[in-house]
Amino acid sequence: MALNDEQLERYARHIVLKEIGGPGQQKLLKARVLIIGAGGLGSPCLIYLAAAGVGTIGIIDNDTVSLSNLQRQIAHGTPDLGLEKTESAADAATRINPDVKIVQHKERLTAENALGIISQYDLVADGCDNFATRFLVNDACYFAKVPLVSAAVGQFEGQLAVFRPFERDAEGKPKPNYRDFVGETPPPGSVPTCEEAGVMGALTGVVGSLQALEVIKEITGAGTSLAGKLLIYDALETRFRTVKLKWDPKNPLTGETPSIKDLSIHSV
Q1: CA–CA distance, 111 with 164 (Å, rounded to integer)
Q2: In this predicted model, what pLDDT tens digit does every residue of 194-223 receive, in sequence order?
Q3: Quick one: which H or E segment has residue 89?
Q4: How far apart are CA 153 and CA 160, in angstroms?
């Protein structure tokens, strides 16, 4: 697929990078990425993936835009109040880049629809705000064999990881997944929500942008994959650190005696 003159100009700053170049840009244009949640993380991730020329971007969210969202969810504006977030986000993405096809999934991800939706994409970027959905996305990506770029934020801290558990490492062990990092869903009320604890708006921009960058790296093969590691950002201390994740033989999804065989565990 040859780039036309407009694309050559639009993506010129990518094309001159030897790690991306024309072939890498073509990979981006052919790629299909699903973003889970059009909120604080999904917004900057979407904006930068659209600007980068990712050919098809799916957005799944069943919420509408509210005034309290606008402190951090930059894909939406004051005129969008009351609109479905997928619509507002799609408008923002296509304003930046009409090359991009936006697929709106105006629904909640469930055990019943997760595999069908995720299997349509080459890669998933999860920016949801609850543990139940994170476990569902993790398990669905494993069964669909789709790489997962997972991000989360707290008040002043962000986390980012890439999961490819359907692959094996040099020792023949499954690469880590979210269940190797977080063993089980915390008890209700033990972890305050964003609404309860608050979150620095610009933090979601930092972490969501890093998430988009890792998606671009996974698609193009540029640099070193974050798979097997967890990146932690402390905004108050302006400090990054990377932690190596390990496969847990007792992991119920990919351990030595897995008990999770399908997504029925997530059915309500």
Answers
A1: 20
A2: 777 889 999 999 999 999 999 999 999 999
A3: helix 85-96
A4: 9
